[in-house]
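Progress against Task 2.4 (sequence-to-structure conversion) is shown through the following example record, which the project officer requested during the mid-term review.
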Amino acid sequence: MAYHPLNETSVVAYIKKLPAMAEIFSDFDHMSVDEVGDGNLNLVFIVRNDGRPQESVVLKQALPYLRVAGDSWPLTRERMRYETLALRKYNELAPGLAPMVFAYDEEMSLVVMEHLRDHEIMRRGLVARKHYPHFVDHISTFLVNSLFFTSDLYLTGPEKKLLQAQFVNEQLRKLQEDFVYTNPYMESPENHWNPLIDDAVQGVRSDAQLKMAIVEMKQAYMTHGEALIHADLHTGSIMINAGDTRVIDPEFAFFGPMAYDVGAVLQNLVLNFLSHYGHTADRGERERYQAYVLDLITGIWNEFARKFDATWVANHRGELAPPAYWQFPGGGDAFTAFRQQYIHHLLQETAGHGGVKFLRRMMGIVNVWDITSIGEMEKRAVAERLAIRIGRRWLLERHAISGIGDLVGIVREETAGVMV
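Structure tokens generated for the chain above:
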């Protein structure tokens, strides 16, 4: 079938022709379709059997352009192949933490996957001050399994290089290189921001020390092919409920720096923390929920570091430093010290990439709903200015970071006394 964008009418006819759908739907006579894609790149449809609502799937199709910018910005549809490959890899390495894939059509640039009907986008739940008791455990497991088992710490050189060759993803990597690390900090037509923070935006653009640090992190993003990273792992790419967590939308996946994914998760939680200056008027309620969000950040890093180290010890086979390398008097202690050093460096790089992502969200092409949904522009500006200050410090102070308490401490210091 030649490529053409589907719509709410044509999706049903397409679904009926897929052999795999006979295992999902008991009949195709009472189908309904909703187009729910509110993202920046793709069409997303929920297809369900109205007679049996539990029979449903999600169909996601790539458009031949950047949806957020319009058809004047061409973009390869191959990103759907990368997303499907990544989802299948996640289901192998971290089963139960990503949606299942039912069908993939390369010519139509689409994937049909599990409908997480009992879940919600985490970003919206956080703004509504919901609690997720298993999130720390789930997301730390996802990060460890998806990163460690695709890295040189576990794979042989040929294994890693063959896998890496499947995830070139040159066009979406270029988007991130431009839209995260370059364009927001100079004149570029797609940038936009709250006019009440114009002075802060111009301050970032003219800060030589900060811009040199951003370039250093861009170099790491472009050259440190450490593991298969999601590369867009924010709270809008997580579907969740009280007992279950699923990572979605890995169309940007490629082999990059592990810290980029970790930094994206932690930084998005800080943005949610800041958003409550506009969303939660009651001071006591606001402070209680903000304390919960900071506990999530601390818990995620601590569990990630603990699980990463334990997984490394239990699966010590990779090319980087194989077991035989440490077989000398004192080698066991040296291996322990190396692991600690490696994980500490990951935290410092997490601060760097997270710091850049704070800045890009305040002044680039794609802002963040937690903040933009604040109705009063003055209150929104408070959160945005705080995000810029925190991002600047995470980035510039990254080499002095000794533990997650330092990153959380920066958040506490910059927000002390705000909106009391």
